[in-house]
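Researcher: Next entry in the queue.
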Amino acid sequence: MSQLLSNTLYFRRFFPYYTFNLCAGLDNQGKGCVYTYDAVGSFERTPFSCQGSGKDLVQPVLDNQLRAVSPLLVPPRGAPVTPLSLTEAIDLVKDCFASAGERDIFTGDRVEICIVTAEGIRREFLDLKLD
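Model: Structure for this entry, 131 residues:
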């Protein structure tokens, strides 16, 4: 799926869609994976990421909550990502969107969170900007 998205974006490289996508799921070993894309289809696998107008507000929160070691250490040391339960991960996503929604005018008014598990797909909704 990640390669298909990359190929689709690359095909339009001369007249790009100007979307910065994120594709998450499970790899062949059953481990979680996240791929981030630029407008012309270049992609990178990362432990976690975010995209969109609120990215500059959300990424530091994810770094703080999911990394045990500061990314500013020199020389850099690869710290493992902090494991979260499903409930903790959903709460973190909701907190990030609530924070971005209050500070970024381009973040929408509602978030749909799709939770994909072995039992199936579940959707949760979070209304933003309630004031």
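Model: DSSP finds three helices and five strands in the chain.
Researcher: Noted, moving on.
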